[in-house]
Amino acid sequence: MMAISLQDQLLKAGLASKQQANKVKADKRKNKKKASKQSEPAAQSQTVLQSRQEKQERDRQLNLQREQDKAQKASEAEAKQLIEAHKVRKDPEAEVSYRFVDGKLVKTLYVTPQQQDLLARGRLIICKSDEQYHMVPSDIADRVEQRQPTWLFRIKSKEVCEDDPYAAFQIPDDLMW
Fold first, then answer.
1. Structure pTM?
2. Cα 2 versus chain centre, distance
3. Distance between CA 150 and CA 112 in Å, rounded?
4. For residues 123 and 137, is the Cβ–Cβ distance under 8 A?
5. Domain residues of the chain, as ranges?
6. What is the pLDDT along the chain (177 residues), one digit of tens a residue?
7. Which residues contact 160 (CB under 8 A, 6 or more apart)?
8. Which residues of 83-115 are buried (b: 16+ CB within 10 A; e: fewer)?
9. 126 near 133, Cβ under 8 Å?
């Protein structure tokens, strides 16, 4: 035997009318729909909010990267401008070859004896800009170093080992190698 719903029993007994039953069904459907709509926007708004936050974070990172690139380009431009404005002109008749290390390569720059002396004393510094080597005064090199430290080639004084048998002998600054 099939169970009869309470609504059908009330209709048979005459305690409720067909209109009342339809109204109750409609109210039930509306409440169900309302509940599902309220839970959907909450879930949707959560995902929308999360995606919006992720987009803001990506945009912030992208803007930060752009600012860093812009600052890097500005510092490169300033360093190039300093080198171009203060570089020591190369003498076309310079005969002394001055060698220095650029990474793993030994490079040669032809200088005059006076320029060689200034390079050995650290008064002139070699800078690299646009794959070209220039000599600039040491005070300008300090300013370039603040902007682009990898562009400079300074003579580094080597530490003397305690057990070095040649430590007592001085190496002349004008030694050619």
1. 0.54
2. 74
3. 25
4. yes
5. 45-158
6. 567 777 777 777 777 788 888 888 888 888 888 777 666 666 677 888 888 999 999 999 999 999 999 999 998 889 889 888 888 888 888 888 888 888 888 888 899 988 888 888 888 999 988 888 889 998 988 888 888 888 887 765 455 566 777 777 777 766 665
7. 167
8. beebbbeeeeebebebeeeeeeeeeebebbeeb
9. yes
Report the distance separating Cα 40 and Cα 27, nearest Å.
Answer: 20
Q: List the structure tokens of 126.
A: 């070699």
Report CA Rg, the chain.
Answer: 41
Helix (H) or strand (E) holding 133: strand 132-137
Rounded-to-integer distance, Cα 119 and Cα 109, Å: 11
- Tell me the C-alpha to C-alpha distance, in Å, between residue 166 and each of 43, 159, 163, 171: 79, 13, 9, 10
